[in-house]
Write a structure and sequence with these properties.
Layout: H1 2-17, E1 24-31, E2 37-48, E3 55-64
Antiparallel strand pairs: 1-2, 2-3
Amino acid sequence: IVKAWQNYFMALRAKLEAACGCISHTADIWSDHNRHPFLAMTAHWIAEEAGTGFLRLRSALLAFH
């Protein structure tokens, strides 16, 4: 599992480095009915689609706890 997560972040880093412009971050914090806290952090960016030149909004999970 750790190796898969490392591979995910290596691929994500390459995508973020190729982003067109800025990268935005969002955070969401909530708790379940038993009051267990959760936190999720997400990145959002614009990427150019290879071959077509179209711009697409992309997002990826950065952290979940």
